[in-house]
Amino acid sequence: MIKKSILTRRDFVRGTACGAAGIALGLRSTPEIIRDLSTSPSRVVLVRDSEAMDEEGNFNGPVIARMLDDAVTTLLGIEDPAACWKEIVRPDDVLGIKTNVLNYFPTPKEVEQAIQNRVMEVGIAEENISIRDRGLLRDRIFTGATALINARPLRTHHWSGIGGCIKNYIMFHNRPSDWHEDSCADLGGLWKMPVCAGKTRLNVLVVLRPMFYGIGPHHYDPQYIWQYKGLLVSTDPVSVDALGVKLLEKKRKVFFDRPPRGGTSTKHVRLAETRHGIGVADLGKIDLVKIGWMEDVLI
């Protein structure tokens, strides 16, 4: 069972201000929140808004920016978004915003812009920010980054089962194909490479319009896209991906009269916890806080 809460952002902030202040201070002193995985749940915020997209699939930038603010303030328990972002990054940070440029499923520009606007308000100079997916090892910002923010859309994936926040760091390696063995089982190991280890301040799994089914490495069919209009946000990349796996599974059960058999294993998410220790994949240890629009939430 996933530990769930459904509440308003204001209710959540009021109820957790004292405890979250310690979490926020932990973020300021170190880019990782140290958890006892045996007892402490990993917190993930799911925020949804029915106006995040129109019927034609166009993204609503101001709504998405507000959704992101609501997610991070709920995550950290700090009511003021500006103050909250000051606990995520510092003015002297060199920041890489790792996105995704896959055809049909790039990280929306509206998400990228919302992140960039907030971190620049904190005081990070524009010349110390880079937003990209490819060529990270040739980018002075990413190779010298003191902080990373990870943002990519959720979709099924031919090799790894899902494309999520864990897999998004594959471009930090100069031979990404080296990580495809055994259904990409060891993708969690990417997060221990010196170029990115311990630097990630926030993970944003974009579930505005996920792809829940596909066949082959480059398959695209609009019938397997749906307007979920959400963001999953956490300091833990494994927990957001574990919930992403669950969300896609639930959607397939709703969509298909008989869910298709087979498909690629998503075991890299579980192994990211049990083998690599970079986060929490056990749904029973994830504290899922849901805010906003709840229609057909599925998880």
Explain this structure.
With 299 residues, the chain is α/β, with parallel strands linked by helices. It has one domain (3-292). Helices cover 31% and strands 19% of the residues. Strands 1, 2, 3, 4, 5, 6, 7, 8 and 9 form a 9-stranded mixed sheet that branches. A hairpin with a 3-residue loop joins β5 (147-157) and β6. The longest helix has 21 residues, at 9-29. It starts with a strand and ends in a 7-residue tail after the last strand. 45% of the residues are buried.
SSE inventory with pairings:
Layout: E1 3-6, H1 9-29, E2 42-48, H2 61-76, H3 81-88, E3 95-98, H4 109-122, E4 129-132, H5 140-143, E5 147-157, E6 161-163, H6 181-184, E7 200-211, E8 230-234, H7 237-255, H8 267-274, E9 286-292
Parallel strand pairs: 1-9, 2-9, 3-4, 3-5, 5-7
Antiparallel strand pairs: 2-8, 5-6, 7-8
Helix pairs in contact: 1-2, 1-3, 2-4
